[in-house]
Known about the structure:
Bound molecules: pyridoxal-5'-phosphate
Helix content: 25-40%
CATH architecture of the largest domain: 3-Layer(aba) Sandwich
Order of helices and strands: EEEHHHEHEHHEHEEEHEHEEHHEEHEEEH
Number of helices: 13
Amino acid sequence: MNRQPHVLPTYGQSPIAAAKGEGSYLYDTEGRRYVDFCAGIATCSLGHCNPIVVDAVCKQAQQLMHCSNLYTIPQQEELAALIVDKIVGIPGRVFFCNSGAEANDGIIKVARRFGHRRPAADGSPRYEVITFNKSFHGRTLGSMAATGQQKIQVEFDPMLVGFKYVDFNDAEALRAAISKETCGIMLEAIQGEGGVNPATPEFLQTVAELCREHDLLFMVDEVQCGYGRCGAPMGWQAVCPTVKPDLISCAKGIGGGFPMGCFWVSNRAIDAEGTELSSIMGPGSHGSTFGGTPLACSAALAVVKEIVNANLSARAAALGEKMKTEIESWNLPVVECVRGYGLLRGVGLRKGAFAVPDGVATPAAYVNSLCLKAGLLACPAGPDTLRLIPALTVPEDVLAEGLAILKDVLSKLD
Ligand SMILES: *Cc1c(COP(=O)(O)O)cnc(C)c1O
């Protein structure tokens, strides 16, 4: 049965339709309850219908939903200051948009402008951004080209020029890929969609060093890892807190389910005159009609304040460790390893350890469908990894309930 004959079928058919949410539970239209370890793919960071977010949205909706960026939107400055001071922790400025792909397009534009202001030795602008195999940066023409996965790009060629992909965590390949056109290196601290593959701390350090050495921008896609998800305010801080990115893209968890994205640009000097990187995007250089509306900013303000005030990063770190230890303690033959940081965890499924029925795309998709039938929503990441990304506020008993379902499903695989 096709439930949605008028909707473009870009997503595979799901057997359930969502009706309502409550914390870390999602209910379908038949009234069945699911433990939600998907959380809108790491988006509903405070759980479903958290009164903190609901109240903020309702109050602001009655005041002013939208007005143009031609006028000052006071919530933007308050939110930007919070992001700069309490989340990123490095002086910079923020641009508001609506999604992760848009945020990535934004930082790619900043990198290209930087490549004009800091051209190659022969005076030609630099424009190339090096990204990584198995990365995911989004579906727009820019962010798709940045994504180092063939399956995302197939039949949409020609791609936007100016990207080169190398293996993640391969410092030598990265060094060798830098050319006179290169202006930036872009990565996820923990690759989310690609399989929950963390960067090593040494690799992040090498990226930072190469950026300094070759006058490149260090670009971090925090769309999935950011805002407490990985046990630190930002994902890179969980992996290697000593490095300092130049550009950061954000979305997903920042809005707690309300569409919101942003990118942060460092104030660091890019030349001997002390020109700040964030100053190169002046009036007219970028824009978004819906970016940073009073409504979206109010939602994000409520979410980010709660993440900071309730120290949900630390909570994610503690619960994530618990989750990993518990899954490893099952000693199941189908579980190869548990990867990730905080509440971004991937259960690596051992190849060939169980049979995948014909017509099912990947082992991860198969296990994910079994979990759903058993009452647990998770999410595949790459072909062999089941991703567990519950709300940062997931109650401990609901976490235990979800893990019990997972254990049962994994134990029955053969
Ligand atoms: C989801 C995701 C994106 C794309 O975000 P959209 O809001 O879907 O455009 C980009 N980068 C990463 C790391 C993501 O996980």
